[in-house]
Amino acid sequence: MALSFFSPTIAIPIHRITCQATTTLSPQRVSSPLPINPNPSSLSCALNCTHFQSCSGCTQEYDLHHPVVIDEAIGFFNKHGVKDFSFDSCRLWGWRCRAKLAVRGSSSKPLIGLYEEGTHNIVDIPDCKAHHPNINVAVELLKQGLFLIPHLIFLQISVIIYVLYVQMAVTTHDTSLPVPERYKNGKVQVSLVWNSRSENSANTGKLNALANFLWANGGPRRKVHLVHSVWANFQTSSNNIIFGNRWRHLLGERDFWEHIGGIDVSLAPSSFGQANTRAFDSLLRKLHKYVPQGASVVDLYAGAGVIGLSLVFSRKCRSVKCVEVNKESKQSFEKTVERLPTNVDSNISWHHADASIEPTSWLLGSDVVVVDPPRKGLDPSLVKELRHISAIELRTNSSKRPETVKDEKRPWILRAREAAIQMESTTVHEENQSLPQTLIYISCGWESFKEDCLSLLASKEWHLHKAHGFNFFPGTQSIEILAVFKRGRGASTKKKKSGKKQKKPH
Ligand SMILES: C[S@@+](CC[C@H](N)C(=O)[O-])C[C@H]1O[C@@H](n2cnc3c(N)ncnc32)[C@H](O)[C@@H]1O
To answer: Catalytic residues (predicted)?
Structure first.
């Protein structure tokens, strides 16, 4: 690879999306997965990536618009009463707006990419087709910086290594540009994971030199402004956890804004952010339709509260409660709230808490519960409560206002209250002690979703009302599911039951 010293080429490739479509699939239209001899239509939706097979990121080379798992999903939902499952194939290339990459190799030959499956070898992926094109340009720029400032990465095991990982996140929300220009001109927030305790460590000079290089060659003074900001994360642990607890903003804009689900959203580098910004926006717009106007919503596994706050705006929710275990997301939530339109009149709160501990305390008082758990699925204690929701409802209705509200002593509830952010509505609403009638499940883990879904259906407390798939990760085995459950057994189960009853007199 050619490395120039002071004037890196920052060309921004423009990708034409030729295979973007929203399709409604029926079981009759199931097509065969992964063709051995791909036909022309498969080729038009092919990955065409030079890193395929050596890189562990993508596993499907053809038919990116049709992930293999979709066929199974259609059959699954059809069997459980959803005949109109839809699948949005979304953007097929250049979709990844957030990437965490390992940095290894040597200063003269840096490698920035993913681990080879089952090893600690890094595969360099300069031409990744999944990345937003500007992530690849920023990776190239970083390599030039590493080349210029020696000993930042290791040559041999014995040499100290400073840069461990890099997170590249793209914001595509630049209001100074016309809307069609914004995506391809996305700017990159670069977070360097630095192998030292803090910014006071001895090697800070090198960190600053690298940050200054990125800013001087990718910042606002360049013809193409590529770098949004540079951050440092300090991580000295040698386990596989990428980020340490300490973050420092070094250069550029501190706040990172994106426009998702109809609102401006702030996302700090330490907070969870969806990798596929555009697909997430499509999912949210679909999700909004399943929430009644003025509803009370609890958003569990909420991150920075993007789902809940977008509902505050689009569905004029009476109240939205967000519950999240990562305290780093709190600040982003607060900033997003500050930018909500001034006419929003809702009780809004964010709680630093573990949704698996006493989940009923979060469900109480909401019409709709939204869950968006990590890949491993819902916590067993939450599934258990959802499976017994009628019994809990009976108990709640028969008892008066619980004493615990007055005299709370449970330490985890007190901690969650202390760390909470609360914005009160100007309208006084009667206290609501109801439990949700609608459960909206967003899943990035198909296997865990099936398990949770079957468990909920088996309880007869919930039935599947609608389901949609989104191509959040083209080229992989994963899809994102938006499933809407309603309380009770549902029309299809009831029909079968009434059919049996009619036969009884014979
Ligand atoms: C898939 S992310 C979804 C975040 C958010 N809904 C969004 O779309 O930006 C899952 C989130 O759940 C959080 N989480 C994981 N386990 C949790 C738990 N037991 N209680 C609360 N939050 C949890 C993670 O920190 C992460 O932010």
So the answer is: 444 (nucleophile)
